[in-house]
Amino acid sequence: MTTTTRVAAAAAGVLLVAAALAGVARGEDPYVFFEWKVTYGTKTLLDAPQKVILINGEFPGPRINCSSNNNIVVNVFNQLDEPLLFTWNGMQHRKNSWQDGLAGTQCPIAPGTNYTYKWQPKDQIGSFFYFPSLGMHRAAGGYGGISVVSRLLIPVPFDPPADDHMVLIGDWYTKDHAAMAKMLDAGKSFGRPHGVVINGKSGKAAADPPMFTVEAGKTYRLRVCNVGIKASLNFRIQGHDMKLVEMEGSHTVQDMYDSLDVHVGHCLSVLVDADQKPGDYYAVASTRFIHEAKSVSAVIRYSGSSTPPSPAVPEPPAGWAWSINQWRSFRWNLTASAARPNPQGSYHYGQINITRTIRLMVSRGHIDGKLKYGFNGVSHVDAETPLKLAEYFNVTDGVFRYNQMTDVPPAVNGPLHVVPNVITAEFRTFIEIIFENPEKSMDSVHLDGYAFFAVGMGPGKWSAEERKTYNLLDGVSRHSVQVYPRSWTAIMLTFDNAGMWNVRSNIWERHYLGEQLYISVVSPARSLRDEYNMPENALRCGKVVGLPLPPSYLPA
Ligand SMILES: *[C@@H]1O[C@H](CO)[C@@H](O)[C@H](O)[C@H]1NC(C)=O
Ligand SMILES: *[C@@H]1O[C@H](CO)[C@@H](O)[C@H](O)[C@H]1NC(C)=O
Ligand SMILES: *[C@@H]1O[C@H](CO)[C@@H](O)[C@H](O)[C@H]1NC(C)=O
Ligand SMILES: *[C@@H]1O[C@H](CO)[C@@H](O)[C@H](O)[C@H]1NC(C)=O
Ligand SMILES: *[C@@H]1O[C@H](CO)[C@@H](O)[C@H](O)[C@H]1NC(C)=O
């Protein structure tokens, strides 16, 4: 590590240790330590003060800067008055679903206690974010960026930018997160967003300092993530085009865009040249596909500028044909560093035989008059004992049953079945998953534990014929993808990461109301080569309290 990174890290209040001495001796990857105090605070983001979730007093939370393969250690002190968990959106946690931080993989961190996460971003060079995963916490902030840079010697397909900024954009609601959860529990919707925020600001305070400053003639990297809960956003910068270079850990073919749609839960990186007349320029994020569009703007200032930004903010694109076409233009750079061969030893995922197709049709219905969402007629509900723990301790009886949902949607929409939704996938098989969204509103889906190839999307119902339209060559390998209204999206992936993995809607209302499931991928070898043992500090709850540890997995 260079002195400069050490100093920068220390200045940012992060304790960075090159490696514990013993670790160096064993050639272990460097450690990066964080200590987070999670509290409520009051912020006025839109019109009135409201309760938000702060990390070390900050909103958004501190950025996690690290290199691929670093050991990230985050000791979370829950100073809220309710249980808390953090999930690391897009981090694959190879062999380690223990650290995924969802109700299905981990017991909640009780108020007044702490829990230490430990995970490694393995070969994932790019932009990600974290957020609190329980209830509607995500609507109260508590999120922050994760940027993973390449270790030295692994080339990145562009010159180092002059600086690198996280741009966290998301819709925002003036209701308290607990009130939002209560509305959903009562069967009501919390409606449309009240505004949009960018790095925790609504752009309404004229006195706000610029979001960041640039030097004329230099190039900057912006890591843009939609950390919101419902609205797709369009992002653009007055007078500046953006060169797309990275998406959720994959280097893309570098095309120019004047605006980009960023759907909920998605992240991408662009390079922006400060090549315009020095002055102030607005970066703008505005909602897409919903009535009463909302937007936010933030100033990017050329160093020394005293010229205010022009009030003429560029218009967002209209309609979703534009958006789907833009999606089609995103391609993976197959020769860039982060591209990794699949287990079959080639980049040609299009030539691997599919062993199983899972069609996941979004279901919506009412139970006792209350709105629920699900997939294929099953609406997920969390169990008191996390599913991963129940499986590890072999006490699934009375917690959940595997495969309550079938691989094809029911022919007729019957009543929704509300249970923990856990399906099994055979270790290392190559599977196609089709998401179908018959709803009038946008969906965005996410898969934990994996990057997948987003190969196709189109309007209407999916049929096997649609496979002819797939991009079987250079679809971007990523962890989230949008599903347009009354449309389908197809992905492909190899289930080579043992664990219990959440598949979910990023639209948090849908997620909260059951549009999620877990995929249990078990390595029959029970070997440390394939999966880690439960960590020693794992919290216990439900049926696994006091149980003796099951036999350890075999040495690799
Ligand atoms: C809680 O924090 C202390 C240090 O303050 C640490 O020693 C302990 O391991 C943490 N607890 C858990 C469960 O991670
Ligand atoms: C892809 O990456 C390679 C290797 O880093 C780079 O030379 C090339 O310019 C990139 N191609 C495109 C189209 O972005
Ligand atoms: C993270 O890295 C970026 C780019 O190098 C830097 O500007 C920022 O200050 C760093 N943040 C922290 C918290 O280390
Ligand atoms: C895929 O399936 C086809 C037809 O069933 C077979 O001929 C081919 O060898 C298989 N390819 C691989 C890589 O397994
Ligand atoms: C799990 O428990 C069941 C009985 O509940 C038993 O039949 C089975 O052998 C156990 N499996 C393992 C791997 O211990």
TrEMBL record:
<dbReference type="InterPro" id="IPR045087">
    <property type="entry name" value="Cu-oxidase_fam"/>
</dbReference>
<dbReference type="GO" id="GO:0016491">
    <property type="term" value="F:oxidoreductase activity"/>
</dbReference>
<dbReference type="Pfam" id="PF07732">
    <property type="entry name" value="Cu-oxidase_3"/>
</dbReference>
<dbReference type="InterPro" id="IPR008972">
    <property type="entry name" value="Cupredoxin"/>
</dbReference>
<feature type="domain" description="Plastocyanin-like">
    <location>
        <begin position="164"/>
        <end position="305"/>
    </location>
</feature>
<dbReference type="InterPro" id="IPR011706">
    <property type="entry name" value="Cu-oxidase_C"/>
</dbReference>
<dbReference type="Pfam" id="PF00394">
    <property type="entry name" value="Cu-oxidase"/>
</dbReference>
<dbReference type="GO" id="GO:0005507">
    <property type="term" value="F:copper ion binding"/>
</dbReference>
<feature type="domain" description="Plastocyanin-like">
    <location>
        <begin position="38"/>
        <end position="150"/>
    </location>
</feature>
<protein>
    <recommendedName>
        <fullName>L-ascorbate oxidase</fullName>
    </recommendedName>
</protein>
<dbReference type="InterPro" id="IPR011707">
    <property type="entry name" value="Cu-oxidase-like_N"/>
</dbReference>
<feature type="signal peptide">
    <location>
        <begin position="1"/>
        <end position="27"/>
    </location>
</feature>
<keyword id="KW-0732">Signal</keyword>
<feature type="domain" description="Plastocyanin-like">
    <location>
        <begin position="385"/>
        <end position="524"/>
    </location>
</feature>
<dbReference type="Pfam" id="PF07731">
    <property type="entry name" value="Cu-oxidase_2"/>
</dbReference>
<dbReference type="InterPro" id="IPR001117">
    <property type="entry name" value="Cu-oxidase_2nd"/>
</dbReference>
<comment type="similarity">
    <text>Belongs to the multicopper oxidase family.</text>
</comment>
